[in-house]
Amino acid sequence: MSATRLDGTLCAAAIRGELTPRVAAFASAHGRAPSLHILLVGDDPASKVYVGAKERAGVETGLHVSVHRMPATSTREAVLGMVYQLNEDATCDGILVQSPLPAALGKKAEQDVFDAINPSKDVDGFHPLNVGLLVQGRATLAACTPSGVIELLERSGIAIAGTRAVVIGRSEIVGKPMALMLLQRDATVTICHSRTKDLPAVTRDADILVSAIGRPGFVTPAMVKAGATVIDVGVSPTSDRQQVASLFGDRSERLASFDKKGSTVVGDVHPGVWDVAGAMTPVPGGVGPLTIALLLKNTLVAAESRAAR
Ligand code: GUN
After folding, report:
1. 217, 247 Cβ separation under 8 angstroms
2. Tens digit of pLDDT for each residue in 125-145?
């Protein structure tokens, strides 16, 4: 392993350490802590884990966190009604509707619900107004995962301006905002996706390569330029022993730990890339903790911005 490990857990702890006194200052100035309201509809097991982690981190940083749990049978109107109620609540600073919503609500429900959130409380940065502001380089609330990647690059001293950056994946949550944030910082950016021709030729050109597609081990050493910075946003839970053995090796520590727990999470980037890249994020312990730290930051920023109006 030769690449420098970009430690997201350490970076997230530093960000949270900086937020804590600002949260306390807000609380003493306004007589209440900045508040985050999380709407969790249904009982998707992964969503429950993510929401639990967001709640714990928020409380540890001094935020007020309320989790509103609604049954999987909730109607679209009931979910929208809860969002409208939180929009009107003057003590609510941030609203996060955990994705995915139950499939029974229909394909368009998620977009309708995200669109209904008051943009000044949109701590996910998913509202079209906030996305438009990001396109123009003047967003105050932007998507947490790509914002976390930028924090990690900047705090690790990795230059962005003038580099060639390649983003694999064009999701609204990660790929598109990631590309915009890199462009804003003067990288030359290419977005790749399932229809990209000769993907390895494109990715081999990258000084900064970000993968966000959720396909275990997809980015192989042959796709990476020597010395590149590789950011792995993929987090795929797996209970497939064969897959873990083929990615990490029969005698790897990861397989030993898998054998104890029966599951693990794997990234988009093949472990062999550690021997080619100059710097790289691990999975777990890379981008994941940063997403939560940036959610807390967005909640504080939303509270401060609303209080200053
Ligand atoms: N589900 C997985 N990631 C996210 C996220 O960043 N925000 C929301 N709202 N739901 C998610």
Report:
1. yes
2. 999 999 999 999 999 999 999
